[in-house]
């Protein structure tokens, strides 16, 4: 039974580790600017640590303890900047070590000076935690820090300096928001780049598929007619008949050129009636008897274009790969079938043409079947959505 509460891989979860993989983009660009922005934010925030160090030196005077605390604050500021720069590309275990290190450096002055007020400086360590750790762990770390400061103030002073607690919470939330926004913007940029690449790939696939459909059929027909013209000139020398075939070839070439231009512009529309007429001409030129439907009025209008591609590709395969003497095309409201009585063309079954047809039919929720025909030869059957549903229901009711 499927757990409806299961989250998808891309769905946000408070236990999910932040994915900063877009910062690893070798091309730099937006990812590099993001890293600089986050590091600059941490560097600017570290100025507060400098002011803190000056204040400590003013109140405690010079001495080994003061020098140690100021040194720890300096290491803390540098560590926060380095953590924001290198941490997002680190492994999970390394991230935990980084957060622990900056947290200990930030808490050390408060412990050495026995003053819970200095725990406010942990806001930078908590921001690093929000950046590198899952949200659940980062929030628990922040909650523990705030509660620890409140309890320590209550025990040490008898009262809580709520203003300092508010600074700890507010600055941590502000820096965490900056990181979250930068994280979101980075992923949006990466997603936009991926969508752009997918759009380019999809357009390339469309043009390649259309060019195959257009030129494959046209060139196959022209090759057959050129061969026929050559045989006429070699055998009988009937110039008038040869000129007639050459005239038809010229018309086909012009039509193919027009189709190529229209395909590139994505304006080309295909007619099932025109494809049947072209199939009749091509099969006759190849010496293959054609049995084609007299009309296509029964075919659903939404399926006529894709069925035109089916007829074109199937007839092209007959011309290219078959020694058939008969090619039959039958149509229905939501199906079209092309069969021939030639030898089975096993190697041609999984070519680019049939793959392209499968993609075209899938776009209209249809299916494509191809393989040896029951009585011999080869068979291509395309079904529209309605017949595909009925076929699936039939197979469920009668698996045999």
From TrEMBL:
Q: Which InterPro entries match?
A: HATPase_C_sf, Sensor_HK_TwoCompSys, Sig_transdc_His_kin_sub3_dim/P
CDD domains assigned to the protein according to its UniProt record, in alphabetical order: HATPase_UhpB-NarQ-NarX-like (cd16917)
Span-the-membrane segments of this chain are: 36-59, 65-84, 96-115, 135-153, 165-185
Stated name of the protein: Two-component sensor histidine kinase
Q: Where do the Signal transduction histidine kinase subgroup 3 dimerisation and phosphoacceptor domain residues begin and end? A: 203-269
UniProt KW keywords: Kinase, Membrane, Transferase, Transmembrane, Transmembrane helix, Two-component regulatory system
Could you state a single Gene Ontology molecular function term? Answer: protein dimerization activity
Listed under GO cellular component are: membrane
